[in-house]
Amino acid sequence: MATSMRELARSLESLPDYAEFYIVLFSTNFIEPPMQKGWTRARKSAVRQVVRWLSQLDPNGGTQPRTAFLQVFSLTVRPDVIFFMTDGQVQDFTAEECATLNDRGKRTVINTIAFGDPSSQDLLKEIARQSGGLYRFVPSQGGGP
């Protein structure tokens, strides 16, 4: 999980200041940065606040993304792209459910990334394929599967 948090921080820090982002993290439920009030401009000060918040998190719980996807797909302005990252076996969520949520309104590209644990790769590949996104597996730093 530490790898995915570092990657998220690196990605935020590389955004141009005119870009906007919206972060939803999940385990059994979803959480958002407390300073996030809708879409956030990628100004350096906002990015620093979010990166600081990310560094203080202690991820735990299951890998149940349903509530996070419900939150994102309920936004008035839907994202152009979602980066769905996980380090575990996705539970209680299917590619079909994701596609159904994505078919309501503007279609969103979903790129999927598995960190260290490829156990959900078939699901992640299918979510990416159905949305026009890409799937990527990032092995653990110790070499892993």
Question: What's a quick, concise take on this entry?
Answer:
The protein is an alpha/beta fold and 145 residues long. It contains 5 helices and 7 strands, in the order αββββααβαβαβ.
Count of helical stretches? 5
Major pleated sheet: 3 strands, parallel
What ranges have pLDDT less than 50 throughout 5 or more consecutive residues? none
Helical content class: 25-40%
Question: What's the N-to-C terminus distance?
Answer: 15 Å
Give the CA-based shape.
globular
Order of helices and strands: HEEEEHHEHEHE
Strand order of the largest sheet: 5-6-7
Average pLDDT for all residues: 90
Number of strands: 7
How much of the sequence is in beta strands? 15-25%
Radius of gyration from the CA trace? 15 Å
Classification by helices and strands:
alpha/beta
Explain what you see:
This protein has 145 residues and is an alpha/beta fold. Helices cover 35% and strands 17% of the residues. Strands 5-6-7 form a three-stranded parallel β-sheet. The longest helix is centred in the N-terminal third of the chain and has 12 residues, at 2-13.
